[in-house]
Structure formats: C-alpha cells, structure tokens
Amino acid sequence: MRNALRIGLVLAALAAFTAQGQAADENTPPAVQALHAHPARTPPSLLAGAPASAWRTLDPHDTLYVTLPQGRVVIALAPQFAPRYVANIKKLARQGFFNGLPIFRVQDDGVAEWGDTTGRKSVGTARRMVPAEFARPSRHLPFTALPDPDTYAPQVGFSDGFPAARDPVFDRAWLVNCYGMVGAARGNNVDSGGGTTLYAIIGGPQRDLDRNTTLVGRVVQGMPLLSSLPRGKGPLGVYMNRSHWVRIESVQVASDLPAAKRTPLEILRTDTPTFTRYVQALRDRRGPWFKVPAGRVGVCAVPIPVRRAP
Amino acid sequence: MRNALRIGLVLAALAAFTAQGQAADENTPPAVQALHAHPARTPPSLLAGAPASAWRTLDPHDTLYVTLPQGRVVIALAPQFAPRYVANIKKLARQGFFNGLPIFRVQDDGVAEWGDTTGRKSVGTARRMVPAEFARPSRHLPFTALPDPDTYAPQVGFSDGFPAARDPVFDRAWLVNCYGMVGAARGNNVDSGGGTTLYAIIGGPQRDLDRNTTLVGRVVQGMPLLSSLPRGKGPLGVYMNRSHWVRIESVQVASDLPAAKRTPLEILRTDTPTFTRYVQALRDRRGPWFKVPAGRVGVCAVPIPVRRAP
Asked: Which of A:17-56 have CB within 8 Å of B?
C-alpha cells in the first residue's frame, strides 16, 4: 500500500494528469492515456483538503521499524486488539531477538513470513508463547462501520486506523487479514504463537485467517520491500535455499530511536468526517474515467491513508 | 496464483507435513510449526482424488504465452466474455505487436501494465480501438454460483474457469478483477481500449474496476514473474527510468507453437462436482490448524486450480 508514497506521488502528478486529461481527445488511443486507465484508489484532492486534525501522528511507542538490507518497513502496532502480543513483540525487539533472523517464506498471493525458524532462539525476559488474542469485546471500541455487505462478517469497518470486523450480538470485534496486515504465526494450539514468527499479507486478503491468528498491526510504509521479494519455490513459498533468505538487520521500537532517526508518519484518523467522505468517494468513484461506480467498497479495498508529517 | 506449482508442491509436501504435524506436540513452539501456520488455500487431497474428467486442457487457440527475460507467463483468454478483444489481441500477437514492448508500470497492491506506451506503434491488420466488452448476457452462460454474499455484485461465482459476477434481473454477467485477472487499459472513452496495453492484477482485488474495463483473461501460470517485479516509483507505479522497463520478448498464441514447445496445463472445470466440493472445503476449512472456519468464501479467495497435464 505504501500510502504515504502513493498519495504523495498522486498529488504531485495530479496537475500534469489533469491538464493532460483535459487536453486529450476522448478518442485518443489507449496507450497515450494509459496513466488514466487505473486511477489510484485514493481520491487525492479530498485528502489534500483535509484539516490537520483529521490526521494523527503514529505513536512511536507502538511503532516498529523492521530494517532490511533494502530499507525500512514501518509497522503500526495494534495494542487495542492484541495488548499481550504487542507487549511481547516489543520486548523481543528490545532484546534484539529479531536481529539477524530471516524472512524465510514468501508465498505468491499469500504472505511473507519472518522470525525464528528454529523455535530455540532465547526469548530472554519475553515469552515464547502468549495466549491467543483473536478477538476482543466490541462495546466501547471506536468503530467506523462500512454500509456495504461483507462476505465474511456481520459488520466491517475501521477502528483506530485498522480494518476490522465486529459482531454486535456476541460483543466481539477483530482485525481482518487485508493487504499489509501483520499477524503472529502459531502451531495447531491456539496459544502456541507469541510473535517470535510474524507474517504480513502481500497478496489478496486472507479472510479465512480471521479469528484464527492474532493480528498485531499493519505495515504503513515499506510494503514493496516485502511484496516484491522473490517468491519461494518450496511448499507454501518457503525459500528452499538459505542463500535466498532475507536477513533482518534489526527490529526496533520507534520510540527507542532519537527523533531524528524516526520516520515521521501521520495516519488519517478513521473516526473523522474526512475519512467518512474519503470512503464515500471510494464507493462512488466519479471523474472522467469511471463509467460504472461500484456504489460499494470492501473493507480491504480502502487503503488507510498515511503520509509524511508535514 | 501459479496454482499448478502451488498445488504440486503442496501435494508433494503433504506427507512430510502431515507426519510432522502428527508427531508435533500441540505446544511445540510456533516456529517449528511455522509451515502449518498459513496453510495453502487449496485443499490438496480433494484435488488429488479428482477424476480426470474434472479437468480440461487449456485450449491452445485461446492461450497466450508472454515471454519475459525471466520466463513464460501463461494467460487463459476469455472469448466467452470478450470475443472482440480476444480476437484483436490474438491478431496483435500474431503480428509480433507486443514483441519488444515494455512492462512500464508496476503499482504495489495494484497492477502490472504492459504494451504500447506511445499509442503509435502500427497495429497492422488489427484494430487500435475495440468497442468495450464490459458485460454480456447472463442467460445460457454456465455459472457456478457461490452461496455467500458479495460486497459488489448481486451474485458471484465461476464461469468456464473465470471468477465472474451476474445480475439475473438485468441479464448481465461480467468477469471480476481478482488477483491474476488480465484486462485492457483504456482512455476516458469506454471504447478507446483495444488490447494494445494490458494489465494484470498483482495485489488485492480491484473490484471497483469491474464493468469499467474489458477483462480478457487470467494468468494461469507465471504470476510471480509479474507480482515480484520492483514497484515503480512514479505516479501509479510507473517506472520513472526506462532502464527499469521489463522488455517483453514475445507474446504468442499457444496453438502457433509446436506441441513440444507448449506448456501443457489443465484447469479444474468449474462446472463439476469436484469444484463444488473444493469450494465447500475452502468455505469450511478443517484440520488441526483452523479453529474458526469462516463458513464463507469470497469469489476472489478461490484459486482456480491449474496443473501440468499428467
């Protein structure tokens, strides 16, 4: 998603494209207008006009930096949904647990997975296993519901910047496995995960994993560093040769870095009128290109905008 | 999706994993069982037991080979849905139109797009523009409907091996923009596409494009060659530097190659009891790992199985 970059670029490009679009004949051959052909999902003008209060700074205490040889992946953690997992993962990170561990599995239209492949690396004062946090009470949870039907859940929407679902009857809410979501691998026992091995969704949503794994956050910058990795040729995308492993240089909690070393990101608050208008604009795509606005939008088809702090 | 490979490998790996799974303690730390943590979406045993009649050979007359420096991408064309576009694209291919043209745009969680960036390359006896084929009559169209609600369409399912939607009231059916689907770029005019520039979905479904582009087929092998390409840093994923372009060596119609040079693939027929059982198995994931079977499945979450011909 890499929304910060995407939005920035789309904004930067808009003037040029709009001018080009206005000048172009309706019958200009397709290639000339190829850049119009698949507009970004993000209505940029709406976001450009949003008040500063519609954005919030990512909390550095709940932000992870995964440093790969290719660059930094930024993960916004979700303590509202997985408090024990988030605390454990931060503890692991602060002990340098992930440093030097590999991305060992990249499955096409699936997940990238990294962490301890041996199950034996010392977790120090952290825990190797943490009780599952698949869902939580939905009452008192901020939730911006989408009006459209979802295949999998009674209701879907957004909570504190994360795509989520809820079942009001049973008072349960949970995060959903959209593109960029990060979860904890586990064995067959529901309580056998702990965050020592994590995955990110790099393809279509894997909603069948909802409530089967503990989701701990979302990649808010750097997705291409994961999504464009070579796919593993082993079962489920495992790299058959360790020489293909991508070594994690470090995983750090942002607040442990001096401010100058942090990536200053803001996320569009999902409980604001701006966000509601943004969702509405995605549901009802207009402009010269769209001919049949869907009038609907899926929970995983709403990129939650992220930008560099101005 | 690269189902052929995926399924083959999963089958090959099953014995090992099953044995390992049975031997593993329920409380074995997660990394040891990491391979169980995100099972492939494909219930392999079901497919292994399918009768030969449940599979059909890809029709070489409606199969394209896109040869990249990295290998071959195989596209199953959909003349049932886009007869004029498919005919035009085959004509373009047979004239060598695509040979040497670039993949010029790779947008993260979006599309890869290739073709004529100038709009001026000679189309010979083919056409530069073809009237849109966004939808077709749904009556008399084979359609295996999914029982679960869809966000975007009144009904979704599968037709002749493609993910599709239909609206029985208005007698319309159309292909949907799931992972791996291939469509024709166009300008603002609905009839300004023609297949000289094509895109493939390399991230989450882009259902807002449904009925806004003419979908012409689906990548049935070689998706990783597209999905793992570096993302373009320009607007909408355009490669800012032509040195990043991936040059297409050739696009050929499979039937124009001698049999020995073809990729012998079979696709699971979507109008068979095997396919229905397969969908049901995806809806109701069981086994030692899944704790909360979704009981539902989305049209874009059903990988349509493809295998090498036995």
From this structure: 17, 21, 24, 26-41
Q: Residues B106-126, buried b or exposed e (16+ Cβ, 10 A)?
A: bbbbbbbbbbbbebebebeeb
* Residue span of the structural domain in which A87 resides: 58-265
Cβ-based neighbours of B198, under 8 Å, separated by 6 or more:
B89, B113, B114, B115, B182, B183, B184, B185, B216
Name every chain A residue with its beta carbon within 8 A of the beta carbon of B38. Answer: 107, 110-111, 113, 185, 199, 206, 209, 236
B125: in domain: yes
The tens digit of pLDDT for each residue in A270-292 reads 999 999 999 999 999 888 889 99
User: What residues of chain B, 111 to 130, have a C-beta less than 8 Å from chain A?
Assistant: 111, 113, 115-120, 128-129
Cα B82 to the chain's mean position, in Å? 15
| CATH number of the domain encompassing residue A143 | 2.40.100.10
Closest approach of B128 to chain A, Cα-based (Å): 7
Please state, rounded to an integer, the average pLDDT across all residues of chain A: 87
* Same domain assignment for residues A30 and A144: no
Nearest to B294 among A117, A152, A184 (CB): A152
Nearest-neighbour CA in chain B from A162: distance (Å): 16
Q: Which amino acid makes up residue A41?
A: R
Q: Do B41 and A206 touch (CB under 8 A)?
A: yes
The interface residues of chain A toward chain B in range 143-162, judged by CB-CB distance below 8 A, are 148-152
Do residues B229 and B286 both lie within one domain? no
Q: What pLDDT sits at residue A40? A: 47
**Cβ atoms < 10 Å from Cβ of B35:** 24
- Clarify whether residues A108 and A194 are in a common domain: yes
Please, which pLDDT band fits residue B99 given cuts at 50, 70 and 90?
A: very high
The pTM (predicted TM-score) of the whole model is 0.89
Q: Is B244 on the interface with A (CB under 8 A)?
A: no
Residue A18 has pLDDT above 60, yes or no: no
Provide long-range contacts, Cβ within 8 A and 24+ apart, for B240-244. B242/B102
* Length of chain A as a residue count: 310
Determine, yes or no, domain membership for B259: yes
Q: B223–A17: do the CB atoms touch at under 8 Å?
A: no
